[in-house]
Amino acid sequence: MADRERRTSKEELKTYAYIVLYIALSSGQIFFNKWVLSSKEINFPYPLGLTLLHMVFSSVLCFVVTKVFKIMKVEEGMTPEIYTTSVIPIGAMFAMTLWLGNSAYLYISVAFAQMLKAIMPVAVFVLGVAAGLEVMSCRMLLIMSVISFGVLVASYGEMNINWIGVVYQMGGVVGEALRLIFMEILVKRKGLKLNPISVMYYVSPCSAICLFIPWIFLEKPKMDAHGTWNFQPIVLTLNSLCTFALNLSVFLVISHTSALTIRVAGVVKDWVVVLLSALLFADTKLTIINLFGYGIAIAGVAAYNNHKLKKEASRASSDDSQQTQSTTTALPTASER
Prior knowledge:
Elements: H1 2-38, H2 47-68, H3 80-104, H4 110-117, H5 120-130, H6 138-156, H7 163-188, H8 196-218, H9 220-225, H10 233-256, H11 259-280, H12 288-330
Helix pairs in contact: 1-10, 1-11, 2-3, 2-8, 2-10, 3-7, 3-8, 4-11, 5-7, 6-12, 11-12
Protein name: Sugar phosphate transporter domain containing protein
């Protein structure tokens, strides 16, 4: 009994450690990207180039981890039809999300960018309804209204609002919402379940190609105009390595808990980023209206996560009952024996 309790407490401690690691890596990556893109010391104001570097690095590292050293396994079941209809759209939306999200850091503060990200459940729900994956209800309409109102209040309280940055950030939100919708279609309609390392293995090269094409036309001429490219290999390699480590931490948390835990941990991470950015960056000026509006939005996000938790629990119990019923039906009767 004592050994069982000791093992349980050890597993719980390990789970909490993974969650803390995810929050630390996710927050640190946001600050790291902001510093690389905005600091005069690094002088690398190329969000498209930085994101392209992340995807190339991730593609190479995934190949080395799965195919060379075989530390992790890529799940099977991928077909050319699934790759064309699902993975390519996911990769394109992922590239769009990272590109536009990183571009926003050139115009708005980290804290305000995180506040705008709180609108994500609204975008996911609206697109989910349009795709037939979600059902409109009075409760969900109320939750979406609360989140939207909170983000509006937070935006009203922003002292140094830059609409170019807002457009970039909202574009990134739409891209992430579309990526999540395509992921859900991949799982629900195509029946293919991939772990995060498999998703990275398939999606990263596709995202790299989607980023490479606009980089040639939009940022490469600017980098060429400055003569020798300002490329600091150590800093940018560390930045890319942190991105890969963040993706692996997501894999660890989901494998030990659930996808919902990541969403809840993400809420905690957002608050950490908002508060710490006020201490780390000079362009962050938080106001009472900012924090009040963000608090309302986060309350709506918490209600959304709670709704999702109940829905997933109900679906899981329904699947268990169906499995039990089918097992009972499959058992032979006394006369059949």
